[in-house]
């Protein structure tokens, strides 16, 4: 029964059904308000009944829990103590989810292939929703599933301009086009991973080829440049790995053909939209504002080396006038730092970001050693695919924040962490549980 809760959580990642409950500030914001998400209900039920008792209390588990407490420590001097407590509790839920997924995956209670298939199906459905949104240049009526309400005249919606024309960047049921792009990248990597993991029936391979075509089309219409870059790097990593793995070479030729045909078809149809979007300059707002947000993060860390507390980055920066100093005087410009690592550092302090980076180092070191032990086999393929899943999100983290403070992004990130922990757990580097050592 626990496996079905995990599978449901994976499939429902893009479904943003939520109920507003309370705001810690005068306005309503995803960053400073309490929303009850449908996913949260499933998550709590899963953790209470099955998840927590499956967790292995090893070095990585303890490190993650200590890390979460470091962002709770500023409660001693913060004026927004209850916001810190709420954000800490929410973070703790996702950390426990990742650890539970790792344990259940190692035990065989949940299957990696099933999770990959669910990621593929859910992301393809998001692509299809996006195609309809692009055709209508508006939302398509899925507001109960979390779709933003968009019309051709809605202000503040992500669009791409070509000459005098402006086109909607597709959202699916996600809060933003960049978050949808990240989810589609996960679906794309999952589809390629299923090819690597030996789907022997031709109709399944043909279906995966169609899924890859659909996902690449959806990624194009997000017009997410960070998404395009991560897609290119993820595909390149998987192709190189497959080419140098003898057992995968035949599948690499099939995959390469699918990708080449897809790129050719998409560029013939949409090249006139892609090329103007494919370059950027330091002066354009999306780049310039990110630099300014990073500067704000550096100032906060300088003034608060022990952090400002979970969820308090925006409020503290606004209270200290840092947005105004950077010329970000409008209320909508008071946004989180668009860099995962600087954001974590400002909220949990220098010790907190150090703990987070040490955690990532331990995970990748462990799984790399396990990868070398199983090189050429199915376990090695699993490790590589899961490594690309997490690595892609970490690359997104260089220019965005949604993995840390938005529901869908948090679920994507901690799922990827749990999957990589699960496939690399038995190497002994992360640390066996007490029962294992006996």
Radius of gyration, in Å, reads 21 Å
Taking all residues together, what is the mean pLDDT?
91
- The total count of strands amounts to 4
H/E element string? HEEHHHHEEHHHHHHHHHHHH
Structural class: mainly alpha
What oligomeric state do these chains adopt?
single chain
What level of helicity do the residues show?
A: 55-70%
Give the low-pLDDT segments. 426-438
| Rough outline | globular
Number of helices: 17
Portion of residues in beta strands equals: under 5%
Kindly describe this structure.
The structure is a single chain. The strands form two sheets. The chain has a two-stranded antiparallel ribbon. The chain has 17 helices and four strands. The protein is globular and about 60 Å long. The two termini are 29 Å apart. The longest helix has 34 residues, at 340-373. Helix 3 (59-70) runs antiparallel to helix 13 (340-373), helix 6 (177-196) runs antiparallel to helix 7 and helix 14 (378-396) packs antiparallel against helix 16 (407-424). The protein has two domains: 1-110 and 296-428, no CATH class; 122-279, no CATH class. With 438 residues, it is mainly α.
